[in-house]
Structures are given as structure tokens and as C-alpha cells.
Amino acid sequence: MTNEQNISNNTVPDSMSQVGIIAKYTFLDYLRSRRFFVLLIITVLIGVILTVLVHFRSAAFTSSNLDFYSSYWGSAVTFVIILSGIFFGGDAVSGEFQNKTGYFTIPNPIRRSSIYIGKWLAAFVASTVMFAIFAVFTIATGAYFFGSNIPYQFGESLLFALLYLAAVLSFTFFFSSMFKSSVISVIVTVILFFFVFNLLDSFVLPLAGIEPWFIITYGAGIIGNVLTSPFPPHGPLSAPLGPRRLITLSTFNATIPEGLAILALYFIITAIIGLYLFEKKEFT
């Protein structure tokens, strides 16, 4: 064997190759994991339950083609996306510290950025599988009632949902980088998405008359709103509450440009901060 061959065999893969290798084997780990099959079952159950509801309460779902996609897809896809982010991103980085796996990868000539990006890509692909399964349920059920007449708004909603998925994963990776405990990072993410954001977006800020433009779930509202005709007005839409109507609740709806900007900023900012935290965190 020549010296050139020895050098070639000992060459460290470049950053892009490292990202690809890490993404590949992380995704394979997801496929073999229990969490993948648990989330797969949950996603299928959501699709089955909604399909059964459409079958027995067709008038509530199928008054029009667009109303069906709004009721079926718009009401549940964000839930599937959040679950995917929690399942695949909640402990993706913190697990490197908690399970000590980082001690085997970091000493090697592998960039931390390659590990972070590779894991993110693997989580995105795994989440997209769940996303695609639910999309198939939606299209199949819609085809049963309306044939192949799929409204163009559904295609827009698909693209918005993919951007939301990317933003959710960046957000969950950010918290996963912040904590060394997988349990804490997952619990914090669950509390934020299922309680804090919904409470702020639906009640606290509308009660104060403040547009929740800085909340990721507010920007994600365009996923369902684009399936309504006409598109809901931006607001504020005020409605009095209580028997004496002394309290006013102001409702806001993000416009499409505003929603896209919110999701894009969450994706970019949390991805950069999460990567920075992972780069600086010490394995002790």
C-alpha cells in the first residue's frame, strides 16, 4: 500500500460528510427506537379517529371541500408537529450529556456543529415521516368525499406546516442544548407548547389587548387560517365577556407574511443559539 493510499484512508471526512454520517445513523437509531413506533401509533390513531368522525358526522366536516381540509388538517396537524418535535428533538442534544455518549464522539475529530446539524436533520426526516402519514390520511379521506379535487390552499398549508416543523425542532433543540437532563428539557418543552403558549395566545394577551406576535404558536395559526375563506381578518376583533360584559377579549390573527416571518425567525434564532450553547457546553 502506498503512502498516498495510507493518507487517503486516514483522511478525516469533511464537515458535510460528517453531517451526513451522523444524520444517517441517528435516523436509523430513531427507526429502531420505541419512541418512533409510539409516535407512529399516535399519528395513525389521530388519523383514524378523525376519519371516523368524518364518517359519522359528515355534515360537520364536509359542508365544502375547503371546510373539510380546515376541520381535518388544520385542527390536528400542529398537534402532530409538536409531538414530533418533543419526541425527536426534546432530548436529542441533552442526551449526549446525560447518557455520556458525548464522551465517545466529542474526543474524535468531529465538529460539534456537524453533530448538532446531523441530529437536527435526522429529527426533521423522522418527523416528516409522521407528517407525511397524517397528510396521507387527510388526502385519502378528502378523496373519498370530494374525489381528487384538492384545494390549492392545502398545498400552501403543507408548506407552512413544514416551516413550522423546522421552527419547532429548532426550538426543542435549543432547550435540549440548554439543559443536561433529558427529562428537564422534555418537560420544559411540553409545558411551553401545551400550556404556556396556548394560555398566552388564547387568553392572557387577548385579554390585555396585546397581539401575541412574539409567540410561535401565534405564527403557526396561518396553517389552519389559510384553509378558511375568506382569510380571517388580522384584528383586533373585540368581544365582551361575562354577564355584565365588563371584560373585552381582543382576538388577533397573524397575516401570512407575519406568520411566515415569526416561524422563520424562531427557526433561525433558536437554531443559532442552540448550536452556540452546544458548542460552549463542557462535558464534566
Categorize the overall geometry.
Answer: globular
Structural class: mainly alpha
The DSSP helix count reads 13
Q: What order do the strands of the largest sheet run in, or round the barrel if closed?
A: 1-2
Number of extended strands: 2
In total, how many domains does the architecture comprise? 1
Q: What ranges have pLDDT less than 50 throughout 5 or more consecutive residues?
A: 1-8
Distance between the termini: 41 Å
How much is the average pLDDT?
A: 84
- The proportion of strand residues reads under 5%
Written description of the protein model:
The protein is mostly helical and 284 residues long. The chain has one domain. Helix content is 73%, strand content 4%. It is built from 13 helices and 2 strands. A two-stranded antiparallel ribbon has the order 1-2. Helix 3 runs antiparallel to helix 5. The radius of gyration is 22 Å and the shape is globular. The relative contact order is 0.13. The N terminus is likely disordered.
